[in-house]
Design goal:
The structure holds 2 protein chains of 2 kinds.
Chain A: E1 2-3, E2 6-7, E3 27-31, E4 34-41, E5 60-64, E6 84-91, E7 98-104, E8 114-117, E9 125-134, E10 137-138, E11 142-147, E12 153-157, E13 160-164, E14 173-176, E15 180-182, E16 191-193, E17 200-207, H1 228-242, E18 248-251, E19 257-271, E20 273-287, H2 292-297
Antiparallel strand pairs in A: 1-2, 4-5, 6-7, 6-9, 9-10, 9-11, 12-13, 12-18, 14-17, 15-16, 17-20, 18-19, 19-20
Chain B: E1 5-6, E2 18-23, E3 31-38, E4 44-51, E5 56-59, E6 68-77, E7 90-94, E8 99-102, E9 110-111, E10 116-123, E11 130-139, E12 144-147, E13 158-161, E14 168-178, E15 183-185, E16 189-193, E17 204-209, E18 214-219, E19 233-235, E20 238-240, E21 245-248, E22 258-265, E23 271-277, E24 284-292, E25 296-304, E26 309-313, E27 324-332, E28 335-343, E29 352-355, E30 368-371, E31 378-380, E32 387-388, E33 402-403
Parallel strand pairs in B: 9-16, 29-30, 32-33
Antiparallel strand pairs in B: 1-2, 2-5, 3-4, 3-6, 6-7, 8-10, 10-13, 11-12, 11-14, 14-15, 14-16, 17-18, 19-20, 22-27, 23-24, 24-25, 25-26, 27-28, 29-31
The chains are: A mainly beta, B mainly beta.
Chain lengths: 310, 407
């Protein structure tokens, strides 16, 4: 169209409709056909074709394949056919799973599980699985692998963690197997008698425990007289922690890990200077980190016996 | 006559032009003269008078040499060519611009985690040390989101950006200053964040935390289910909604750009097949179909826009109920597009396999295996076989044809 010598709405986009602003879409309907797939994603980069991406990714919002149900989430089950969710773990070299967390599922919010697993040794690879459970009957395992490497000695009691990178690095241990050698009058050699199945470690660890800043380095104030009160308060707190009689997890950078109880008597002694102090403590192993029963009865796990993988 | 003053001169790179600013309170200046001498040899290396009203004098690039100290003086001339006193000497340095840049950006500047440890490469050919530096984070509009404290460790010029959001672009920047006052700036560098679990998308994530010696476990389960009471029929991996309606009203929220793909059959009709909206709002977008008198069908997308309906149509299509149709809707910046693919002659059965063992290789979608004892497994191509639906056994059937006896 020409008006007064100028073209008017002659371009292809000259009359483009006003864009809409429908946001926060949380309801959709589908009807009047036989449907093979319903796929919704926030990815707008791929080329649309008659072939739909087969797997969920970070952009997928919902995907109903309509094979035998109407489920459109990233799992092929709904709240109607799940009563609990179990988180299981096993070392990559093991076959048996250990249940480390369970949660009763009633609402969609119950599906959100987030926690820290402290029962991991440095350098070991673990496989974690989330398992839907319907009144004791397990569904498909969805799993992933992970490992962590750290360079400190950790002592953990539930949500309280003390650590230090300043250790003598030894943490020597002794394996205890109580037994008796019975010497007889008529035998050159004794009779070895072991009337117990006791078989546990004891050990001694030493470390310099200091307050740290966010960058995880010891502050200079630890070594100044001005910091004496802060440092001694922290070290007294650590002493109170290891002497509280509660079982703990002891983990070392070389991959060793035990469930321990600190035994008498921890010491706090100076090395080279009054404010460079080593805390040494002896301990005894009181359970197995791989035993669901030990973890439960020692208070490290709240997974009850019905969930144990016998 | 008054004496001009040269304003403070920060160290600069002699490879580039540098403009000296002059403070002058005497008669209006008509010309100004800049004299630059080498501080060590007292040799005059630059002595030029410029005719300009501006209280500036630009020293051309490459007049001086980097890594040396110089002395500058200026003198002003009025319209009558009366010269002022020459200014006091001002000492300054020239240094080559150090190499100061981010050194560990991944391919395409795509960050795959919520945190990124940005490292800076710093090299000064004049052996200048870095005195201090700080890091910035901006959003795509340039708004400052984060400013770090000022660091001074010259051996580890790095900073960990934390809390980066998935599918978001940012600008990162580092500014610093050398011991001699030379300003350093990486400029704004764009990064994109797109999370990636090392084990790919998963229903459970296990992220190591070296700081507290643990592994953080988090589930990533999306349950989107039908919350109504109707039961539906399923056939050949498809849901029959010919006379029913399926809705989803929980477990998802869609914002911004998206792609919607609907794939189905029995769509040769007039009617609304899809709606999407916010349950609390009246605005919605609808996909419907209409058959025109010339026996062509168009799919139509309509959406309220507060003024009228925003409407777009697909290309005219011709297909049958048994053909498979794929409808693709894409929304970018609230502008929609629609594309439709049709698979004419689509069938839900493919080749037949007979044998005692289920075939494990060479199969295609919708192949059928018929468990047959004492027979090695083999395939019959669908195009070479005949299927009989008769009450009596066919007399002209060939080997591998299929007779489905029924009343």
């Amino acid at each position: 169209m020409f008006i007064c010598g100028s073209n008017f709405v002659g371009g292809s986009n000259a009359c483009a409709v006003t864009p809409t602003d429908i946001q926060m879409i949380n309801y959709i309907e589908l009807q009047y056909g036989m449907y093979d797939d319903l796929y919704l994603t926030q990815d707008v980069e791929f080329e649309i074709s008659s072939t739909i991406p087969q797997e969920w990714d970070f952009n997928t919002v919902l995907y109903a394949k309509f094979n035998t149900n109407t489920n459109a989430g990233n799992v092929d089950w709904s709240l109607n056919n799940i009563s609990d969710l179990a988180i299981k773990k096993r070392e990559s070299t093991e076959f048996e799973w250990v249940t480390i967390k369970t949660k009763e599922i009633n609402t969609l919010d119950d599906l959100i599980i987030n926690f820290d697993d402290h029962m991991v040794a440095s350098g070991s690879t673990y496989e974690y699985a989330v398992v839907p459970v319907l009144y004791g009957s397990e569904g498909v395992y969805s799993s992933t692998n992970s490992s962590v490497t750290f360079s400190k000695m950790f002592i953990v009691e539930h949500d309280t963690i003390y650590s230090t990178a300043i250790t003598d690095g030894y943490c020597d241990t002794t394996r205890n197997i109580p037994s008796t050698n019975v010497e007889l009058l008529n035998s050159r050699y004794p009779i070895f008698v072991r009337n117990s199945i006791a078989n546990y470690d004891t050990g001694q660890c030493t470390g310099m425990f200091m307050p740290e800043e966010n960058n995880e380095e010891c502050t200079d104030i630890n070594f100044n007289k001005d910091g004496d009160y802060i440092r001694t308060s922290y070290q007294k707190g650590f002493m109170d922690f290891i002497c509280d009689g509660v079982p703990k997890i002891l983990k070392l950078p070389d991959g060793r890990m035990w469930l321990i109880q600190v035994t008498p008597n921890p010491t706090d002694s100076a090395k080279d200077a009054y404010n460079m102090r080593d805390i040494s403590f002896s301990w005894v192993e009181i359970g197995s980190v791989h035993s669901e029963a030990d973890l439960y009865y020692l208070g490290f796990s709240d997974v009850e016996e019905q969930w144990w993988n016998k | 006559m008054a004496k001009p003053i040269i304003k403070k001169v920060s160290p600069f790179d002699a490879k580039y032009d540098y403009t000296f600013d002059i403070a002058w309170t005497g008669n209006r200046s008509y010309k100004n003269r800049l004299v630059v001498s080498d501080n060590e040899t007292n040799t005059v290396v630059y002595d030029v008078t410029e005719t300009t009203f501006a209280l500036k004098h630009t020293l051309p690039a490459n007049t001086l040499i980097n890594g040396r100290r110089y002395v500058a003086q200026v003198q002003m001339f009025d319209m009558n060519d009366t010269a002022s006193s020459i200014s006091d000497k001002l000492l300054f340095w020239t240094f080559a611009t150090p190499d100061f840049r981010f050194t560990n950006l991944p391919d395409g500047n795509i960050i795959k985690n919520s945190s990124f440890n940005a490292q800076i490469f710093y090299y000064s050919s004049d052996w200048e040390d870095i005195q201090g530096y700080e890091f910035y984070l901006y959003d795509m509009t340039g708004k400052e989101l984060l400013k770090s404290e000022i660091f001074s460790d010259p051996n580890d010029i790095s900073y960990t950006y934390k809390g980066l959001q998935n599918n978001t672009h940012y600008y990162i920047r580092c500014v610093g200053v050398t011991v001699n006052g030379l300003q350093l700036d990486t400029g704004n560098v764009e990064i994109g964040v797109k999370f990636e679990n090392p084990n790919q998308y998963s229903r459970i994530y296990a992220v190591p935390n070296e700081k507290n010696g643990s592994i953080n476990i988090s589930t990533n389960i999306n349950v989107v289910q039908y919350n109504g009471s109707e039961t539906f029929q399923f056939e050949n991996g498809m849901i029959d909604l010919t006379n029913q309606m399926l809705y989803y009203d929980d477990g998802f929220v869609l914002e911004g750009d998206f792609t919607l793909i609907i794939r189905g059959k029995n769509l040769w009709k007039d009617g609304v097949i899809f709606k999407g909206k916010n349950a609390d709002e009246s605005t919605e977008f609808i996909i419907s179909s209409k058959i025109y008198p010339e026996e062509l069908l168009r799919f139509k997308l309509s959406a309220n826009n507060g003024v009228s309906n925003y409407i777009i149509y697909s290309e005219p299509l011709e297909f049958h109920d048994e053909d498979m149709v794929t409808i693709g809707i894409r929304r970018i910046n609230n502008i929609y597009s629609i594309v439709v693919f049709t698979e004419i002659g689509y069938i839900t059965e493919n080749n037949y396999w007979y044998g005692a063992l289920r075939p494990t290789t060479g199969t295609s979608d919708f192949d059928i295996w018929i468990d047959t004892e004492n027979v090695p497994t083999y395939m019959v191509n669908k195009d070479t076989m005949q299927v009989y639906l008769t009450t009596s056994e066919p007399t002209d059937a060939n080997v591998n044809d299929l007779w489905l006896d029924g009343e």
